[in-house]
Request: fold
Amino acid sequence: MIYLETFNFPDGDEEFDFILSIKRKCYDSFYPFKILSKNRFERIDFEHITILYGGNGSGKSTALNVIGEKLQLIRESIYNKSNFYQDYVDLCRMELVETIPEHSRIITSDDVFDYMLNIRTVNEGVDYKREALFEEYLDAKYANLRLRSMADYDQFKKMNESRSKTQSKYVRHNLMNNIREYSNGESAFMYFTEKIEENGLYILDEPENSLSPRRQVELVKYIEESSRYFGCQFIISTHAPFLLAMKGAKIYNLDEYPVSIGSWTELENVRAYYDFFKSHEKEF
Reply:
């Protein structure tokens, strides 16, 4: 499904006219003006999966944030808007094929990182409780307690439970509702699968961050299937070969002047990987 068909950023002349119209001269930055226009990046024609490729400073994250702001997509992390951000967004134009579903969102590396930190905090709490339960198990198992009143009931219950279970089963039973132990890669991948629903437009800013190569391959499969079978459209910034190789993806190379549409196998970052592994081919 294609929801967003085209998006136009202001060209150099439009930017010049706007900056000239500003009366005050005290600003040292007109961001995001002059970021995308420096390589004449003025228009995107979208496919089911559209990728923006480029090095640091190429403007790929800026482009995604501007598109997300224009579409008023859901987002979690804050980002640099600057004094002229809304002016720039207002100058942008877009064409829709379908109404953007309300649950559509932009997902950034900061969103994923914050989610991983939350999971880690939960896990640290679980670790602390586990140690406390180890001590509780031993205290209860060897306690010499008689049930004399209702005040003794909870401790008496723990004593009986500890004597009927091994230490590991006792701890596992009492942690059952709290365990969320995942590796960073598992947590990052889980974030994407939780947030990407059927029939939506999703902007992903460098989703490969925090993912191992194996997890990147799994994410590629998840994106491809979500696009093909579940009515999703994706706009992605990345320089990861696994994502760049996605079937049917349209790739804009922001390192080129002017920005061009190209094949993933000709991109500089991919060629660097190819040359490295080719030179070590006999070692495999």
Summary: The domain at 4-107+186-283 is CATH 3.40.50 (Rossmann fold). Residues 109-141 form the longest helix (33 residues).
